[in-house]
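Consider the tokenized backbone below.
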């Protein structure tokens, strides 16, 4: 069966041609009510949850896994802040319709590091018993720099008290060095963007609450270089019928990432609209300090939790490795 037919048989939505300025685009519509009923289409709480980390590749993973016809992906919205019947209902209200042949899937990059209490409460009380979690971990130094660039650009778009409050919350202190280092020049583990990369600590807490078999950890570095092998791993972890193919992901020389091309989903192409954000040049000494700081945390990841990604073993370096 071709991709479009398969999608049209399973999904609660369809894409119809729409002419805009002489060009044919596609508009997504809900299927007719009778079909929605037969397919059991409704908003349902996720059976698959992407839990982070921030800047780990969660946006691309969400969108690309959502290309699978057996997956109904809803754009990430953070529930809460308190988890109650009402806030969970409101969260569910933001989801797409899911048919009985699909798994409802969403997530938020904050679950792993900042919103664990909410995550645990939801898993205990609200989410389906068979819920599975996907966690994307990326070289913590790259994650940190990417996070800094993103956070700074958000701060620069704000003004006055609002900016000050945001900078305080995020621990931004005027420069990359001031944000990451304490008064003695050591990497500051209390800096929020440093703390987020100490994955071993958060993983320890996660495994105390959620069984290991329910969690798949994906290498965000490998996913960025080529999303296809990671997506196949996720398909298998979720016991989905194999659907995603190598030809669905094409490297874009300008954007420097893979973009998607699946005929049933004209709405998903590249995750970033233009070029990937360029990372600042980092002083050699600072880079070495950061890699040295994270090395014992990465070692714990391997020794205690069996995470064997290449960057976990990398010795500290003053170059920014690939
Ligand atoms: N295919 C593809 N397309 C676009 N971007 C990709 C892709 N694969 C991985 N990435 C990397 O994802 C990084 C952003 O991560 P997140 O989406 O987790 O960020 S967020 O915290 O949820 O906003 C972002 O990090 P930076 O490159 O450092 O900006 C991307 O490199």
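A designed sequence for it:
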């Amino acid at each position: 069966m071709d991709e479009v037919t398969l999608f049209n048989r399973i999904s609660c939505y369809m894409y119809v041609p729409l002419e805009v300025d002489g060009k044919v685009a596609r508009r997504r519509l809900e299927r007719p009510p009778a079909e929605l009923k037969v397919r059991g289409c409704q908003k349902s709480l996720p059976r698959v949850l992407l839990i982070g980390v921030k800047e780990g590749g969660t946006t691309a993973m969400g969108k690309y896994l959502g290309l699978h016809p057996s997956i109904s992906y809803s754009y990430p919205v953070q529930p809460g802040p308190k988890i109650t019947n009402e806030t969970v209902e409101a969260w569910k209200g933001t989801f797409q319709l899911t048919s009985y042949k699909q798994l409802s899937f969403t997530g938020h990059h904050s679950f792993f590091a900042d919103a664990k209490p909410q995550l645990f409460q939801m898993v205990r009380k609200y989410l389906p018993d068979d819920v599975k979690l996907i966690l994307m971990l990326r070289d913590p130094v790259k994650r940190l720099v990417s996070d800094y660039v993103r956070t700074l650009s958000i701060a620069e778009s704000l003004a006055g008290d609002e900016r000050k409050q945001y900078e305080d919350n995020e621990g931004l202190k005027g420069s990359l060095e001031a944000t990451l280092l304490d008064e003695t020049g050591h990497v500051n583990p209390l800096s929020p963007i440093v703390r987020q990369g100490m994955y071993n600590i958060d993983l320890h807490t996660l495994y105390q609450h959620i069984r290991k078999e329910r969690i798949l950890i994906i290498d965000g570095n490998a996913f960025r270089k080529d999303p296809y092998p990671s997506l196949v791993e996720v398909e298998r972890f979720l016991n989905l019928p194999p659907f995603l193919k190598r030809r669905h992901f094409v490297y874009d020389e300008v954007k420097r990432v893979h973009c998607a091309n699946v005929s049933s989903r004209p709405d998903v192409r590249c995750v970033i609209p233009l070029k990937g954000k360029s990372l600042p040049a980092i002083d050699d000494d600072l880079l070495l300090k950061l890699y040295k700081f994270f090395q014992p945390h990465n070692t714990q990841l391997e020794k205690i939790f069996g995470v064997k990604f290449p960057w976990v073993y990398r010795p500290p370096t003053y170059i920014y490795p690939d």
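The pocket of PPS is lined by residues 54-60, 109, 146, 223-224, 227, 257-258, 271-272, 276-277 (CB under 6 Å).
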